[in-house]
Specification:
Helix content: 40-55%
Strand content: 5-15%
Number of strands: 13
Largest sheet: 5 strands, antiparallel
Strand order of the largest sheet: 4-3-2-1-8
CATH class of the largest domain: Alpha Beta
Number of helices: 18
Radius of gyration: 24 Å
Oligomer: single chain
Structural class: alpha/beta
Shape: globular
CATH topology of the largest domain: Rossmann fold
Number of domains: 3
Distance between the termini: 39 Å
Length: 467
């Protein structure tokens, strides 16, 4: 179920606020306030209602100030005016009222088969999705969370399911004793990655909002101190303000590997790990940092003694095994028989996105099995958009493209190139000494696109793909 008002649409399950189809950035606390208001359109929602339903238990900072800041952020996201509100009306001393008409709409249009309903394969699956397949990494991650490790590393190529794995692990925690906050570095503006002070101040504000703290980081920030010291002091203040353990999940961490502030930031995370060992009474004993990434960190971080990537508990998320692909086929209502599933696995390997997409398409009647397994023109087939995006991304990196072409021609590459091609999701994980393409479909498609004489001249049609 989605909630619509004016030109906005809200998905309570995914936590997304969109305007005319475009996702808008909004912190967790303002989003949860919006949900409460949308559930009660035209009615007074008191300060006490919001405190009870939105604010984390165990946080002992100024509630009124934090509420005011969060509502201001919500109004900014909606383009609303407190003096002449279109959406959020302030009732002084009492609370707020949502003025616009709210409509409830079904998230899925049409009547797809039960076996395929609700699975959005192109984004992280909801934590309660029946189409999520547990792998060995799930158990490892849950154990690391339970052991309160200082740093947990989740490594996998893109589109393997890192974000879903972390979200499900965090959702299973006891909310009375743990608070989790998330930061997606892939969504951060590129310009802040070169400004240490602006970057860390923005992170501090983001963390404060999600923890439910109401203190303003700018008031504790001093120009006389280095930005890392300011952030360190503020983070410890947040940890002291709650009685619960804090888990900070960082997604797309490799977006910072080559950024000017990357080494400085990751050295700061390493310092928290070191402080836990050296200072038993430090507040960071209640902090766990989860770092999700695709590329090998050691290729980019210059000083291994200041890196969190060689001290944390590392969890590697692999592609689906044949058995796991079979389990997903069961979840979709067995649209493929045993022989067809084996053919599909031979074509796309255990690539989670491609396995999901194939099973969903057959379940919905959008494709037949034969159409998927024997696509005459993959550009127009089920995987066309995916393959074109992959090729565009590859064309943006001359070095990566050259390394892949060398591998396609010779079957070999330097170790550093293997790591980067694995991180890009082009080579299979776990085969650094004898690398291989992630799936046969990728190998044939990329050979046709990058090596065929016709493509070099800008002519020719793609070859037929079959298992």
């Amino acid at each position: 179920m989605r909630l619509k008002f004016d030109s906005f649409e809200v998905d309570p399950r995914s936590g997304e606020l969109c305007r005319e189809g475009e996702a808008l950035p909004l912190q967790n606390l303002p989003f949860r306030i919006l949900l409460v208001l949308l559930e009660n359109p035209g009615q007074l929602v008191t300060h006490e209602d919001l405190k009870r339903r939105v604010w984390p238990a165990g946080v002992h900072l100024n509630f009124e100030q934090g509420l005011h800041r969060s509502v201001n952020k919500l109004r900014a996201a909606l383009g609303d005016d407190a003096d002449q509100p279109r959406f959020i009306e302030t009732l002084p001393g009492r609370g707020y009222r949502f003025k616009a008409v709210v409509k409830r709409v079904e998230a899925n249009r049409g009547s797809p088969p039960d076996g395929a309903r609700g699975a959005n394969i192109y984004s992280a699956l909801p934590v309660d999705s029946p189409y999520y397949i547990r792998r060995g990494a799930d158990t490892q991650f849950e154990r690391a969370l339970g052991a309160a490790e200082s740093i947990i590393l989740v490594s996998a190529p893109r589109q393997t399911g890192k974000t879903s794995l972390v979200a499900r692990g965090l959702a299973g925690l006891d909310r009375d004793s743990v608070v989790s906050v998330t930061t997606d570095f892939g969504k951060l503006p590129v310009q802040v990655r070169s400004d240490s002070n602006g970057f860390l101040l923005m992170l501090a504000d983001e963390l404060a909002g999600q923890v439910g703290a109401t203190s303003n980081p700018e008031l504790d920030w001093s120009a006389r101190r280095p930005p890392t010291v300011n952030f360190d002091r503020f983070l410890k203040k947040l940890l002291q303000a709650t009685s619960r353990r804090v888990i900070w999940a960082i997604d797309e961490a490799d977006c910072l590997f080559q950024a000017p502030i990357g080494n400085e930031f990751f050295a700061l995370l390493r310092s928290f790990h070191n402080e836990r060992a050296l200072q038993p009474g430090s507040p960071v004993h209640r902090l766990t940092v989860v770092i999700s990434y695709a590329r090998e960190a050691h290729l980019f971080i210059s000083d291994e003694n200041q890196s969190p990537f060689n001290v944390g508990t590392r969890i590697v998320l692999r592609d689906f095994s044949a058995a796991e692909a079979g389990e997903l086929n069961d979840r979709y209502g067995n649209p493929l028989n045993h022989a067809e599933l084996a053919q599909l696995f031979n074509l796309v390997g255990g690539h989670p996105l491609l396995i999901h997409g194939s099973l969903q398409a057959v379940s919905l009647g959008e494709r037949t099995v034969a159409q998927i397994l024997q696509a005459e023109n993959p550009h127009d087939g089920l995987f066309g958009d995916h393959l074109r995006r992959m090729l565009r991304s590859l064309n943006q990196s001359v070095r990566l493209k050259a390394a892949l072409m060398e591998f396609l021609e010779t079957g070999s590459a330097f170790p550093e190139q293997v790591y980067e091609l694995q991180a890009a999701g082009l080579l299979a994980e776990g085969h650094s000494t004898r690398p291989r393409m992630r799936c046969p479909m990728y190998a044939q498609f990329l050979r046709d696109e990058l090596l065929s004489p016709q493509k070099a001249k800008g002519a020719g049609a793609p070859a037929k793909y079959s298992a």
